[in-house]
Amino acid sequence: MFFHHLQNFSPYSGHIYDDMHVPFVQKREGHLSKKDSRFELMDRLGYFPFKELVTDGRAYFISDNDLYEFLKAKEKDLDNYTFGYGQWDMAQKESFGKCFFNGYDLGLIEFESNTGTAYHSYPIEGQTRYLHVFCLYCLNFLFFDGDLDQSLFYNLGYLQASLYRGFIEINNLNSSLPGGNPGLRLHFESYNRVLDIAKAADEKEKKEQKAEESKKQVEPFIPTVNEGITDQTHETVLTRIELLCNIDEIKAIWQILTAPLNTKNGIEEAVFDAKQLAQFLSTAFSSGAFPDAFQSGSMTPMVKVTSKGDMRNVLIALMYATYNINREYNRSVTQIEYVSILKQHFTVFSGSGAMSIKNTMATFNPKGMEVIKNSQSINPHVNEMLSILKKHKLLH
Question: Residue 62 above 80 pLDDT?
Fold first, then answer.
């Protein structure tokens, strides 16, 4: 159907080897294989379900996790793989990566020719359906099962770029339909801008940390019900973070606060009921891709009182998980902005500086996770949360 011009490409298997016996790698933990879940990517229009791999000043967006991990692996990561017959070293691994990137670069350029001349004569709805089939065709062959063949890696790069461009185009077309949402804010032409945003955010975060550390005395940040982060003009700015990740997963994570938790001080009753949780999420987060996912955020955040100690650590764990999951798709938001949400909504953080909380999130996250795990018998939402974290490799 597509890509018959690629070397050693089969419309049945995706690739044909000159020698059917090729070197291969496998993970020491888990295994590399065709995963049917890769097709679920097409159910996530409006999100950006690609991981960014930066090399030689270029950004490559990759949907297959096993392929992404293999391509970004460094010398120290090679112990995570076992190797089949033949010689293997880092230079060989890099040679396969070079083939992938070469295929990717050409796939970006040849996207229009691969969609065919008839495509542009279709109405928008027809173009969207056509591209959906095109993307599914790419996904049918876009998997890494450990085989080490240069033609295969070149073809994988070409297919990945074709899928990426097709996915972006579908979102762009949907945004132009009557009543369509704005879809992705990240477009094919803007991937270099993504790098600039990420670099600027990291530099801003470093400057803020340096300025905070240079102060002899840190003034406590104590928000009222109407306070968020204060800008240079001392005007109150309510923080709402744009979610580009799977919104249902974020809702499921915070849902554990609608049931009791087992702390060292005894059973802590639910922090929110279902209505209050929806209000909290709408005030804390937003989604331009799915504006109806949250009710309109109130300008007055709901301030909740919880016990100290374990519950403080639980809240840190929930926000740290949210930060890591959303950061896969939206790197323009700094960790300090996630901290500001904790300070806006939970009085247990009012006596601490925003930067001091940020600097200890990774430290107290495991303690909060331990409380959550110990609450499985009394909290029906814990298992779903843990499975989400394992999916994103935030929990082992």
Answer: yes
